[in-house]
Amino acid sequence: MADLVPYLTVASPFAALAVNVLTQVFLLRRSAGSYYMRSMLVGFSFGAFALCLVDVLFLSHPQHLPDCVAEFAVRVLSYAGLSYCYFHFVNLGQSSIRVRIYSELVDNPIGLEIGALKQDYNEKTLVETRLQRLTSSGDVVESDGRYFVGRHRLVVIARILFFAKQLILGKRSEFSSK
Q1: Which positions ≥6 away from 76 have C-beta within 8 Å?
Q2: 108 lies in a domain?
Q3: How many domains does the chain contain in total?
Q4: Burial class of residue 19 in the structure, from the number of CB atoms within 10 Å of its CB (0-12 exposed, 13-18 middle, 19+ buried)
C-alpha cells in the first residue's frame, strides 16, 4: 500500500472530480434537467467528501501531521480549482448565447431569419428571461417593480465565483475595469 501513496496523492483530486461529475450527471438526468445548480452543488459536495475520505483512509499519517495538513490543503485547492474549471466548462454549454444560437441553427435545416434571432436574443429579452427564471425559482422576488434576493443559495455561489474571479482576474468581472 505504501507504494501507492504517491500516486493517490496526485490522483485523489482527479478522482474526487470524477465523483463530482458522475454525481452531478446522475442527479441531473434523474431530475430531467430540473435542478441544474443543485446538482452542481451536490456533485461538488460528494467530490469533496470523497477527497476527504481518501485522505483519511489512505494518506494521513499522524506521525507527520504538519506535512499531512499541508498536503491535504494542496489537494483541496487542486480539487477546488478542477471543480471551478468543470463548472465553467459545463456552464458554457448551459448558458452561452453563441452555443444556443448555433444549436437552433443546426435544428432548423431551412435556416432562421435574422429578425427571429434578434427578437429571441436582444438584450431586453435576455434580461427578462433571466429575471423570469430567477423569480420562478424563488431566488429573486419582485415587489412594487423592484427585485430583491429571495432565497440566498445563489448568493453564496455568486460570492464564491466573485472571490475566485477576483483572485484569478484581479477584478470581480471580466467586464469591469476594477
Answers
A1: 48, 51
A2: no
A3: 2
A4: buried
